[in-house]
Specification:
This protein is of the alpha+beta class and 853 residues long. Helix content is 25%, strand content 17%. Helix 9 crosses helix 14, helix 17 crosses helix 18 and helix 21 crosses helix 22. Keywords: Hydrolase, Metal-binding, Protease, Repeat, Thiol protease, Ubl conjugation pathway, Zinc, Zinc-finger.
């Protein structure tokens, strides 16, 4: 032991005690998904607090020179028997009664119990030191090491913040209207039962307005059930904000909704407000489902959930390489589904998994913060099969289930989720997200991190050509833009079961009038060919400013593919807004084909003999009460306007500029959009923005024709040397940094974001001898090269699709189906099984790959 004591003494200066703010990785290996529960446990560096599995700890020791590691090993305890456990299987699961996670009555979150073994291991000889061994060592060694061990074990791990602890969806704020609510003395008295909507006679989902005592039906739900929105209309007409749901009133309270605050609220004076209309809260009994119960029911809705998850079938569990499940970290199923599909694409496999050793060898000192390292780690975890093992039995003594469970140990991508979500207002949270938005977010991160070398997102990148034809002059304009996802419209008027839908609507209305239970909704069947026809048909543009006619006119816009990617992603636009602007999901079935031929949608470019619209800006708009000033400004005077420029400063529609800015577009781009569309409105400006988003000078200040610089700027530009140095330190040239600052009005944060979103343009820049890029030099007349895209035949085959269950992308659940060796496989978080009936008609995102002949 003296030898170990001496080794500890020699490394004592490298052993740190965690302080507040230190990142302690004691749940997950930085380079793999090993954890304290894995075979071999987890080794935590006692200097950097990085965790490593047994297969990577030697690598870290060799590279860093660190010798002291805290080894943590956990063994799962058998669950305790309780009164509800019959001893012949899993304990019966209680039905949730509260819209919450991790608290009594809410959705259950499994809390594992472990036996833990902790010791210090000294490398390279792997000498072990336990707490008992420390007691015999010198005080300075014992105190320092014991303090470090205790600090590491008590510190919150980085993943702790990502784990679901408690969430209560029933916590409600007190309404600001409740205390001083005005109640009318109109003599209204509400009977204890027999209520009906005053407008449509509906007898359920009824709400009494707490200001005037009038009773109306509630909102209509996405599937057509619920009410007819009469309570909402009454608020819009009167402004009376609070209503209570009749049938939910008990001595403990009732459901109160504030239309003004658009949320369920608390009314501390509810007994007083009810008694004003003759209702004694202490004698009332519950006869209706509360809003919480309805939300829980929606989150357990049969129909769609059962079909998409194939719950009615006995599914055969699968395991092995490429068949690894992913743990749900709390509403992370959108991430799980997207990453499962992406690592089926060969480009992502070769970029990150085939080169994993090279990526790990080049990783920085803290690999937990390196994008390439964490993506490679996730890809290897999904494809290697190392973590594709059946989950342990619920406990010893329990009889095996007669049906296979399909659950795997799987991988928990906590480190990956934290990295890709860092700084993002949505993906950094534990809330449910839109899988399509996450896919685009991840592709954007790949683009930023692949400045050089192979870029796997090119597999999805394609060019869209938009052809606009002026109906007055018959001249055309062609623009191209980059896209990654094809958005497919859903023409509800093309349903093939219209008669059945009408009958279902009549049955619903009859049930509403008679008080009978609402019948099951009927799903609309939309042909895929109708969706494609809606995509390809020309769009009419009204108030189009024609540069040929120099006036507003009508135009038609046709959208076609200028290139076909290797992999085509199709998003079915199921999520929309109703006439009342309430988000809703279209309950549709679409016969999506296994093979797809888009050849007919190939763009043809300018036709023979076709004339193009001239590139002339619309005339600047002036108002009589605006003082006219020339671009030359101080070079003229009021008496002699001979030196004034004939081009007058434009008056831009501030409301249109503001609307575009609120959508997230740069201010200067919005100003140019309004200027070049002649103040013709938001639609025309939006079309200009979409057609010029990929222009190198998209965010550059507005430069009027005939001038060399934007209004308010001088021809000689001056940029902050500090800003230039910051961008150059990121690996960019000074010329590239100057270009970024010029495009963003010398704002560093915007310049950094701009430079990462214009990598393709920057890669093509050639610096000339004069210090300016060839693209910017006066002698250059060649347009900057466009983004790199692949092209080939437009024939595809379906290989994966992601499905969503629930009423909105912000709630519900995602699963994905992937075709592996001619067998459809369902990936439902940790469950990986052979699919018996893949619900291809109910998908949300479809993934096709090119068919090579």
């Amino acid at each position: 032991m003296a030898e170990v004591s001496e080794v500890l003494m020699s490394v004592l200066s490298t052993i740190r005690v965690p302080r507040p703010g230190d990142r302690v990785h004691k749940d997950e290996c930085a380079l793999s998904f090993s954890s304290p529960e894995s075979e071999g446990g987890l080794y935590v560096c006692m200097n950097s607090f990085l965790g490593f599995g047994s297969q990577y700890v030697d690598r870290h020791h060799t590279r860093s020179g660190q010798r002291a590691y805290l080894h943590i090993s956990q063994t799962r305890k058998a669950p305790k028997e309780d009164d509800e456990n019959s001893g012949s299987g899993d304990p019966p699961k209680k039905k949730p009664t509260r819209l919450a996670i991790g608290i009594e009555g809410g959705f259950n979150v499994e809390q594992e119990q472990y036996e833990e073994e902790v010791k210090v291991v000294l490398f390279p000889d792997r000498q072990e030191v336990t707490s008992d061994d420390l007691a015999t060592m010198p005080d300075v060694v014992r105190d320092r090491v014991s303090l470090a061990m205790a600090g590491l074990m008590s510190a919150d791990s980085v993943s702790h913040a990502l784990q679901v602890q408690q969430w209560d969806g029933e916590l409600r704020a007190e309404s600001r209207h409740a205390v001083e609510l005005e109640q009318l003395n109109n003599g209204t008295k509400i009977p204890p039962s027999g209520w009906r909507c005053e407008v449509c006679d509906l007898q359920e989902n009824l709400w009494m307005n707490l200001s005037d005592g009038r009773v109306f039906c509630g909102r209509r739900y996405f599937d057509g059930s619920g009410g007819n929105n009469h309570a909402l209309l009454h608020f819009q007409q009167t402004g009376h904000p609070l209503a209570v749901k009749l049938g939910t009133i008990t001595p403990d309270g009732g459901d109160v909704y504030s239309y003004d605050e658009d949320d369920m609220v608390l009314d501390p004076k509810l007994p007083e407000h009810l008694s004003h209309f003759g209702i004694d809260m202490m004698t009332m009994e519950k006869t209706e489902h509360t809003m919480t119960e309805l939300e829980i029911a929606v989150n357990q809705r049969v129909g769609e959930w059962e079909v998409i998850q194939e719950s009615g079938a006995t599914l055969r569990p699968l395991s092995g390489p490429g068949l690894t499940g992913m743990k749900n970290l709390g509403n992370s199923c959108y991430l799980n589904s997207v990453m499962q599909v992406l690592f089926t694409v060969p480009d992502f496999q070769s970029k990150y998994v085939s080169n994993i050793d090279k990526i790990f060898n080049e990783a920085p000192s803290d690999p937990t913060q390196d994008f390439k390292t964490q993506v490679a780690k996730l890809g290897y975890g999904l494809l290697s099969g190392e973590y594709s093992k059946p989950a342990p039995d619920p406990g010893e003594g329990s009889e095996p289930s007669s049906e296979p469970r399909g659950d795997q140990v799987g991988i928990a991508a906590r480190m990956f989720k934290a990295l890709v979500g860092r700084g993002h207002p949505e993906f950094s949270t534990n809330r449910q997200q839109d899988a399509q938005e996450f896919l685009l977010h991840f592709i954007n991160m790949v683009e930023r991190n692949c400045r050089s070398g192979v870029n796997p997102s090119e597999a999805f990148r394609f060019l869209v050509e938009e052809r606009i034809v002026c109906q007055q002059s018959q001249k055309a304009k062609y623009t191209q833009r980059v896209d990654y996802i094809l958005q497919l419209p859903v023409p509800m008027d093309q349903a093939t079961n219209t008669e059945e839908l009408q009958k279902a609507e009549r049955r619903r209305e009859e049930a509403d009038s008679s008080g009978a239970p609402t019948p099951a909704p009927v799903r609309a069947c939309i042909p895929f060919t109708a969706c494609m026809a809606a995509l390809s048909e020309p769009e009419t543009l009204t108030d189009f400013w024609s540069s040929a006619a120099q006036a507003k006119t009508t135009a038609t816009k046709t959208t076609r593919f200028a290139s076909f990617p290797d992999h085509m992603v199709i998003q079915v636009k199921k999520f929309t807004f109703g006439q009342d602007w309430v988000p809703k999901k279209l309950d549709v079935s679409i016969d999506v084909p296994d093979t797809l031929d888009l050849t007919a949608l190939r763009a043809t470019g300018q036709q023979p003999g076709e004339e193009l619209l001239p590139e002339v800006a619309p005339p600047p708009l002036m108002t009589p009460d605006v003082e006219v000033k020339g671009i030359l400004g101080s070079h003229g005077n009021e008496e002699d306007d001979s030196l004034y420029s004939p081009l007058l400063s434009p008056v831009l529609d501030d409301s249109t500029v503001s609307q575009l800015c609120e959508m997230g577009f740069p201010l200067e781009a919005c100003r140019k959009a309004v200027y070049y569309t002649g103040n013709t409105g938001i639609d025309a400006a939006m079309n200009w923005v979409m057609g010029h988003m990929d222009d190198p000078d998209f965010s550059a200040p507005l430069v009027l024709p005939g001038t060399s610089s934007a209004p308010g700027t001088t021809p000689t530009e001056s940029f902050s040397e500090e800003h230039l140095a910051t961008i150059v330190s990121m690996g960019f040239s000074r010329d590239q940094a100057t270009r970024a600052l010029r495009a963003t009005s010398n704002v560093l944060e915007r310049a950094v974001d701009w430079i990462f979103s214009h990598l393709d343009d920057l890669e093509s820049m050639e610096v000339s001898e004069g210090g300016r890029s060839a693209a910017e030099s006066e002698g250059s007349r060649e347009p900057p090269p466009g983004p790199k895209v692949r092209d080939g035949p437009g024939k595809y085959e379906l290989f994966a699709f992601i499905s969503h269950m629930g009423t909105s992308t912000m709630c519900g659940h995602y699963v994905c189906h992937i075709k592996k060796d001619q067998q459809w496989v369902i990936f439902n978080d940790q469950k990986v099984c052979a699919s018996e009936k893949p619900p291809k008609d109910l998908g949300y995102l479809y993934f096709y790959r090119r068919v090579t002949e």
